[in-house]
Specification:
heterodimer, A: mainly beta, four-stranded antiparallel beta sheet, 11 strands, 0% helix, 58% strand, globular, B: mainly beta, six-stranded mixed beta sheet, five-stranded antiparallel beta sheet, 57% strand
Chain lengths: 111, 112
């Protein structure tokens, strides 16, 4: 009965590949987010969706494309992976923009 | 332009003593602040929050203090326990939207 789940937990891939990370929340929240935590441990928001609608799109390369089939899911697809994409990616959800609940993270390693 | 800063990357405290974690912010539009705790290989978990209309919020061993004029908040943990050893992130929410800004975290080690 995990509140926010992400798959996979670890992802190792070659440069140039395309990969997806899935996120699901069972909290009934309207808003979902993707964060990137880089090597400096800085948690930076990438995208935010509210009821399947994109509301925040920070300066992220267009190789990153979020997809929200319904308000319980927000998947992240990454095209043409680069070395600099290696990081931990966290999904989160919230209701009414307040306390966010995070998933366990996906550690992406690009070789 | 990091709008939320945690200038101490690490802190060590003896068990039973007080842990004080600090956070500074630059944006006066922030009106809601949160502390998250993160264990290795897990996502951040919500710990405690405070609205800008308050200057203190307490929950058990955890107290958050907000000094709006100094744009500073702090998390006090007393008494500290070894299980409190984790990375603590400060976060702020602007009243103009629902985007959270996170600090870089402070790694707390509570020594038994």
């Amino acid at each position: 009965d995990t509140a926010v789940s992400q798959t996979p937990k670890y992802l190792v891939t070659q440069m140039g590949n395309d990969k997806s990370i899935k996120c699901e929340q069972n909290l009934g929240h309207d808003t979902m987010y993707w964060y990137k935590q880089d090597s400096k441990k800085f948690l930076k928001i990438m995208f935010s969706y509210n009821n399947k609608e994109l509301i925040i799109n920070e300066t992220v390369p267009n190789r990153f494309s979020p997809k929200s089939p319904d308000k319980a899911h927000l998947n992240l697809h990454i095209n043409s992976l680069e070395l600099g994409d290696s990081a931990v990616y966290f999904c989160a959800s919230s209701q009414a923009g307040y306390t966010q609940y995070f998933g366990p993270g996906t550690r992406l390693t690009v070789l | 332009d990091q709008q939320v800063k945690q200038n101490s990357p690490s802190l060590s405290v003896q068990e039973g003593r007080i842990s004080i974690l600090n956070c500074d912010y630059t944006n006066s539009m922030f009106d809601y602040f949160l502390w998250y705790k993160k264990y290795p290989a897990e996502g951040p978990t919500f710990l405690i929050s405070i609205s800008s209309i308050k200057d203190k919020n307490e929950d058990g061993r955890f107290t958050v203090f907000l000094n709006k004029s100094a744009k500073h908040l702090s998390l006090h943990i007393v008494p500290s326990q070894p299980g409190d050893s984790a990375v603590y992130f400060c976060a702020a929410l602007s009243n103009t939207g629902n985007q959270f800004y996170f600090g870089t975290g402070t790694s707390l080690t509570v020594i038994p």
